[in-house]
Please model this.
Amino acid sequence: MNLLVDSLPYVLGGLVLLGILILLRKPLRWLYKLAARTLLGLGALALFSQAGSIIGVSLGVNLINAFALGLLGAPGFALLLMLKWTFLH
Model:
C-alpha cells in the first residue's frame, strides 16, 4: 500500500507528460524536421567548404549558417553567398 501511495505522483506526472506530448505532436514533428534539415545544411556547408577552397569561395561552417540553410534551403545558400560577397567586397 505504501509503495502505491509513494509512486502515485510519478505515475500521474508521467501521464500528464504523455498528454502534453500528444498535444504537441505536430509542433515537435516540425522541430525534429528543422533539426534534421539543419544537420543536412551543416553537412552541405562542410562539403562546400572543401570544394569552395578550389574556386576561392568559402562560407563559415557554423550552426547559424546551417540553421539558415535548414530553414530556407537553396535560397538560404544563395542568401549566405550574397551576404558574404556584399559585406566583404
